[in-house]
Every structure is written in structure tokens, then in C-alpha cells.
Design a protein that fits this description.
The chain is of the alpha/beta class. The chain contains nine helices and 33 strands. The chain has a 19-stranded parallel β-sheet that branches.
Length: about 450
């Protein structure tokens, strides 16, 4: 059976106290909306529709950044979840199959849970995702009889007896597209909020002789983010789960609670991550690599046997081949370091390609930016770049070439050549002592006159 996703992302999120749409607040470096879309992707949907509202343009842009092929529709007036799904259905014209409704502010629904819902659709017309709540609070309640879902009751509309139920509604629902569309035409807004509730669909389906059931999941999967406190809790929950997964996969985390992972971090088995390492989005670390303490990585690839840090920064486009060493206070951006390159101290490598076995001395800078354009530095194999070398791009250093320490290199250096570009040193005997005596006398005079 084909599947389509509808992801509801129209809410303003008043309790976030933010100018930004709620679903664009980030967890592990990615908008909450992306987490919801990734969860739904486990179903390999044929179509995906995102319903935006508050901050529609920004939500639409973020959705298309995740998947350019999805559809985005606007719910200009927020009249409830049923209204939102009704608006989304025309974007599924021509589609036949099941529709699964997810929420952009509920980022942790698991693939296993969605697969269980799909399996339940084989025997029931409508499937709702529920959970046993430790504190049911103001969640909607699921009224069941055995495996049958009788109805969903919103807290504000529930009786005292219904409020005693602990089986709660996550809001996630799956049904055949045709049935869902038919039931939504019958949903009214005669309730405490004057809204069109998607939660009315199971009860209406039952009045038409259709069946409804509940699939249960852990409460943690249904965490909705409605405030900054919720956002912080969600971040902590993501980090704890991601760290545990890496440990299970054979990654060494010396101090797991200090390592911050992104939503898409990939680390191979037998890699070692020291304390206080931060991964931004887009990082892959291969097996056997070592990321040392207090390093920050984003948008980069670290190959087997490489060592990064401590106190190193890898920025987007950094590509480290096998056995590369990038040491303390070294920054790499949009640069390829081939096998065995060493840059161990106090260096900036940007917009560059460094050949295998080359050594980059302390204090080296690729001067890549002229204020308007970025320019590229190319260094060949087994070159030796002396400490405190300024490489003014565009410039090429040949295989086996050397630069003298303290040089400013503005022209290409042929293979095997030594380039030295320094100002001539002049030594003035006794002048240091005379100068210091003069300055001390001046300071004493200023102090006396103060």
C-alpha cells in the first residue's frame, strides 16, 4: 500500500516567546520540522505535504531545503488540525493509499512505531498513536473497548470519568486517503475551542461501520515542544539517545555527557571521542579516527586513522584523508588534506589542497580572501612549509618544495625549490638598552607629574 505524509507545521508557538515559527527552532542543529520529516521518511512516502501557517515563507523554505520535491500549503487561518488536514488533501490529488499525519513539533516518533501503525492498518480502517502518560494533564484521552478505539476526547471537552483515563492521544493518525477525506467533510466545530478536530475522525468512522484502533508507543516518542523548557528537554533527550547509540555501535566516548552531537552525525566503530567535543551538522568520522578534547567540527569528513585536536576547528568543506594530523588551534575550511598531512599547531588552512605527507609549520596561514573573492592555495606532496609562512593565494607550492620560516609567499614555488621571502634583518648594538632607559625615564616623569 502506498503512503503519503501530511506534516502539520502551522502553529505560532506562543509559549516559545519567539519571532521564529515554532517548528524552525533547532534540536541537534536541525529544525524540529526536519526531525519530523526524517521520522516520516522511514515509511518511504510517495508524497509529502507540509502545512504551514505562522511564518509560512520561512517554514516553506526550510521544508524545501530538506526535500525540494515535497509540497507546502498554507493554513492562513488556524481553525484546528482537521481543518489543516483538509487543506492539505488537494495537494495529494491523484494519490491513492494511506495518509499518515505527523506534527512538526513532535520530532521523536520512531520508525518502528510508524511501521507498527502501517501493520495495524491491515486490520483496521483508522489507526491512532497513543501512549500511557505518567501525568495525563491536558492531553486528549483515548476511549477504548479491547482493541477497538471508540473515540478521542479532548481534555477540555472530557467528563471527569474520561479525564481519569491515562491512555492519551499523540495526534498521529493513519487512514486511507479517501476515508480520511470523507470523514473530514463531516467534522464540525461544535466544541469548546470552536475548532475542527482531526480527533473526531475515529468516532465518525465508527458511525459509518468502520473500525479504529490504537498503537501504543513510549511516552518519550510523543514529546511535543511548546516552550523553551520543552526545547531544552528535547535537546537533552536527543543527545542522550544519540550518545547511547554511538556507544552501542562501538564508538569510544571518554566522557559521553560532554559530547554534543548533531542530528546527522556519523561516527564509525573504534573511533575515539575525547571530552567536550561539539559536532555541528554534516560530520562523518570514519572508524579508528580520534577527535581530541575541545574540538568543534561541522560539515566535514575525517578519515580512518586521522587525529583532530585538541582545540581544533573543522569547518564546512574540510576533508581529512587517512592518517592526517590536525592539532591544537588549527582551523580548516573548504580544504582537502591528503593522506599523512600534518598541521599540528596554530594554523589556518582555507580554500586549499594539501598533498600527501606535507608538513605545515606552526603559524602558517593561507591568505585566501581579498575582501571580495576567495582564492585557492595548492601545496604538493611532501612539501615543507616553514613556521609563520603567509601563503598569499592564489599560489601553488610544488612537490617537495620548502618555504623558509617567516616568509610571505606571493608567487608560485616550483617542485623541489626553497622559497624565502623575509625583510632583511638589521642589528643595532646597544640600542635596546638605550631605548628601554629612555622609556623608563619617560614613565617615571609622567608618574611624578601625576
Amino acid at each position: 500500500m502506498s503512503t503519503a505524509l501530511i506534516v502539520l507545521a502551522a502553529g505560532k508557538g506562543t509559549r516559545m516567546n519567539s519571532d521564529q515559527p515554532k517548528v524552525l527552532h533547532r534540536i541537534a542543529g536541525a529544525p524540529m520540522l526536519w526531525h519530523a520529516l526524517r521520522a516520516g521518511a522511514a515509511l518511504e512516502p510517495e508524497r509529502t505535504v507540509v502545512v504551514g501557517g505562522h511564518g509560512f515563507d520561512a517554514v516553506a523554505e526550510a521544508a524545501r531545503d530538506y526535500d525540494p520535491d515535497l509540497s507546502v500549503v498554507e493554513q492562513a487561518e488556524q481553525l484546528g488540525t482537521g481543518h489543516a488536514v483538509r487543506i492539505a488533501l488537494p495537494a495529494l490529488e491523484g494519490f491513492e493509499g494511506d495518509v499518515v499525519v505527523l506534527y512538526g513539533d513532535t520530532p521523536f516518533i520512531s520508525p518502528d512505531t510508524l511501521e507498527a501503525m502501517r501493520a495495524a492498518r491491515a486490520t483496521h480502517d483508522v489507526v491512532v498513536l497513543g501512549f500511557e502518560a505518567a501525568d495525563p494533564a491536558r492531553y486528549g484521552r483515548l476511549v477504548i473497548d479491547g482493541d477497538d478505539l471508540i473515540k478521542i476526547v479532548e481534555f477540555k471537552d472530557a467528563t471527569d470519568e474520561e479525564r481519569d483515563i491515562t491512555l492519551c492521544n499523540s495526534g498521529v493518525i493513519a487512514a486511507d486517503k479517501g476515508l480520511l477525506a470523507e470523514m473530514l467533510t463531516k467534522v464540525g466545530n461544535d466544541n469548546a475551542s470552536g475548532e475542527y478536530y482531526l480527533t473526531d475522525v475515529p468516532g465518525l468512522a465508527r458511525t459509518e461501520g468502520r473500525s479504529a484502533t490504537v498503537v501504543r508507543c513510549p511516552e518519550a516518542e510523543t514529546l511535543g515542544v511548546n516552550s523553551r523548557t520543552d526545547l531544552a528537554f528535547a535537546e537533552a533527550a536527543f543527545q542522550a539517545a544519540a550518545r547511547a547509540e554511538l556507544l552501542d555501535l562501538g564508538v569510544t566516548l571518554q566522557a559521553p555527557e560532554t559530547v554534543h552531537l548533531a542530528w546527522d552525525t556519523v561516527v564509525g566503530r573504534d573511533a575515539e571521542i575525547e571530552p567536550n567535543v561539539v559536532f555541528g551538522p554534516g560530520v562523518t568520522v570514519e572508524s579508528g579516527a580520534r577527535i581530541r578534547a575541545f574540538s568543534h567540527l561541522e560539515g566535514c569528513h575525517v578519515s580512518r586513522g586521522a587525529i583532530v585536536g585538541p582545540y581544533a576547528r573543522l569547518r564546512p568543506g574540510a576533508e581529512l584523508a587517512e592518517d592526517v594530523h590536525v592539532g591544537n588551534f588549527v582551523e580548516v575550511k573548504n580544504a582537502v588534506l591528503h593522506e599523512g598531512v600534518k598541521a599540528n599547531h596554530l594554523t589556518y588552512i582555507g580554500d586549499a589542497e594539501i598533498g600527501e605527507k606535507t608538513n605545515i609549520g606552526a603559524g602558517t596561514i593561507t591568505c585566501n580572501y581579498d575582501g571580495v573573492f576567495k582564492h585557492r592555495t595548492v601545496i604538493g606532496k611532501r612539501a615543507f612549509i616553514g613556521s609563520d609562512t603567509m601563503l598569499v593565494a592564489p599560489v601553488t607550492i610544488g612537490d617537495g618544495a620548502m618555504t623558509g620560516s617567516g616568509s610571505t609567499i606571493t608567487s608560485d614555488v616550483p617542485a623541489g625549490a626553497l622559497a624565502i621571502a623575509r625583510g632583511k634583518q638589521e642589528t643595532k648594538p646597544g640600542l635596546a638598552e638605550k631605548l628601554m632607559n629612555m622609556l623608563r625615564a619617560k614613565k617615571a616623569k609622567q608618574k611624578a607629574n601625576a
